[in-house]
Amino acid sequence: MKRPISCAAILALLATGCTNTGYDTGKHLPQNEGANADAKGVLHVRNAYLRAASGQAASPVSPASEQTLYAVLINDGHKPDQLQRITVDGGGSVQLSGAATDIRPNQPVGANEQPLGTVTGVRGPSVPMTFTFRDAGAVRVIVPVKQNASQSPAGPAAATPAAPGHAPKHAPRHTPGH
User: Fold this and answer.
1) Each residue of 89-109: pLDDT tens digit?
2) What DSSP state is assigned to residue 107?
3) By the 8 A CB rule, do 80 and 104 touch?
4) What is the pTM of this model?
5) H/E stretch holding 156
């Protein structure tokens, strides 16, 4: 009689050990629709995306006259850093807003739909950009171009930036006929 109980106990212990592998990718991979990157593991670019001005659609052929750049910049370091510039690979230019330059520890910049700046002369569904920080250095990001809120079926809720380790809440998407 003791033998079946011992086997059952061993099987139960093995089964519980297999269910907890120790991986929590939700903490390490931001869940959003924009681009994400880390500079020296201290400065984080989260949910970077471009949005065309009202009435403009993204075009793979002709550059948009002006697009707004959104992203959340998070400094996990112990001292302030500074976003010095953002360059566009293959042409185009970025004009930073004044609030985007100083990044203090644990004080996200660009949260709550605050734009980092405007971008001109770019085309296509995604744009390679390099964010250069004074202390953390440069990080390259492929920034997607999103539709205007007036064109998007999900509306502005789909563009909520996420902090590291936190998934944004998305509005449910409904497909006609489902």
Assistant:
1) 988 999 998 756 789 999 999
2) -
3) yes
4) 0.65
5) none
Spatial distance between the Cα atoms of 138 and 126, rounded to a whole number of angstroms: 19
The per-residue pLDDT of the chain, averaged, comes to: 73
Position 117, amino acid: G
Q: Coil, strand or helix: which one is 5?
A: helix
Q: State the Cα–Cα distance between residues 49 and 121, nearest whole angstrom.
A: 15
Do 75 and 171 touch, CB atoms closer than 8 A?
no
Decide if 152 contacts 158 (C-beta within 8 A): yes
139-172 pLDDT, tens per residue?
999 999 987 655 443 333 333 444 444 433 333 3
Which residues, other chains included, contact 122 with Cβ-Cβ below 8 Å and sequence gap of 6+? 50, 63, 64, 67, 88, 91, 92, 145
Nearest alpha carbon to residue 118 among 101, 102, 92, 95:
95
Q: What is the C-alpha to C-alpha distance for residues 13 and 139, in angstroms, rounded to an integer?
A: 45
